[in-house]
Amino acid sequence: MIREFIKPLLYSSGVFGLLVMISEFFRNLNFYLEQKASFIEVFKYLFLNLPWWIIQVLPVAVLLAVLFSVGQLARHGEITAIKSAGINLWRIISLFLIFGLFIGLGDLAMREIIIPQTSRLADKILLEKIHMDKPKSRTEFTDLVVTLPRNGRMTIGYMNTETNILKQVVIDYYNEKFDLTTQIACESAAFSSSTWHLMNGAERIFKDNAIEENHFVEKTLSLDIKPADLVLDDVRPEQKTTSYYESYIRQLEALGIPSEKEWIQFNMRYSSIFSHLIVMLIGIPFAISVSGRMGKILSFIFALIFAFVYWGLQAVGQSLGENKVLSPFFAAWLGNIIFGFLGVYLLGRVRK
DSSP code of 130? Predict the structure, then answer.
């Protein structure tokens, strides 16, 4: 049974992945021609992105594999024979469900180990072999606004993370009522040994509708952050591991930047593990009930409809989460929760 399941799983996964790969090639064909990129380098770039594209369509491939393999048993009368022999169908159903969990663990391993590496290599080929550029690390930033601990905010006109030099720095502190209490403004600043050195500025204290201003040539300030912490890495979701997500979200929260979208993406990594189990809960009852010559066609149509509705629910959940209507956890798990209950209900109606 596992062999009959694996064959359509590998076939549909490969076909869907290649279709995405071919569509991406023709979608960017003008760009490749303009860059005069060689076919080999373009193929390497697309091939290295293939694992990520396959992961995206894997739940649909799993659903089709279940529909075709279990449906074939039903069409050939083997489900009836199994029941007649006094064998409980749960022996078959549990086999598929356990295999679905193993597929989910493989999905997680791909996201954690393989895909971050392949997507980085793909980006390197795109930059160096197709764009013909050398990799550059950005060190200069302008017009930054970040949140500081103790109700503070820092505005930076210019910052160099390589030299740790800043210019046009303004630090504001507020009380619980969001009234400005202290403002420190300076022409330049430097960071060294966990200490900020502010040069040529003034400290203003706002109290009882009065302003007390003190000028300074140099002032030291202790902050638990360094200039590099104020800059967010521009990394694609497929290149982020769980540990990277956790550190990235902590950085966002330290800077006072909304992190709902990242929390949703983080939770969706783990909801995807169980998505393969969910599609089996839905697919097995449908496959058992469908027989006849039109079984494969009906199964394929059902898979497309299910994918459309499932991904639609995922998009709705993500939108509700980003607008703070749902928590990031429920936003990421909305589709799994709804179809999970539906799958358990349908599975319970199957005559064992």
Answer: I
Fold of 150-223: lipopolysaccharide transport protein A fold (2.60.450)
Using the 8-state DSSP alphabet, how is residue 317 labeled?
A: H
Contacts of 239 (CB under 8 A, 6+ apart): 115, 116, 119, 120, 123
* Residue recorded with tokens 């697309």: 46
pTM confidence score: 0.75
Length of the chain equals: 352
Give the tokens for residue 201.
């500025």
Location of each CATH 2.60.450.10 domain in the chain:
150-223
CA distance 299 to 288: 11
Tokens for 132, please give them.
């013909």
d(CA 173, CA 11): 60
In order along its 352 residues, the chain shows pLDDT tens digits of 888 889 989 999 999 999 999 999 999 999 899 888 899 999 999 999 999 999 988 988 998 888 888 888 777 778 778 878 888 888 888 888 888 889 989 998 999 999 999 999 998 898 888 887 766 666 788 888 887 766 788 888 999 888 889 999 999 988 888 888 899 999 999 988 778 899 999 999 998 778 889 999 999 988 777 887 777 776 788 888 888 888 888 777 766 677 888 888 889 888 888 888 888 888 888 887 776 566 667 777 887 788 888 888 888 988 888 888 889 899 999 988 998 898 888 888 776 6
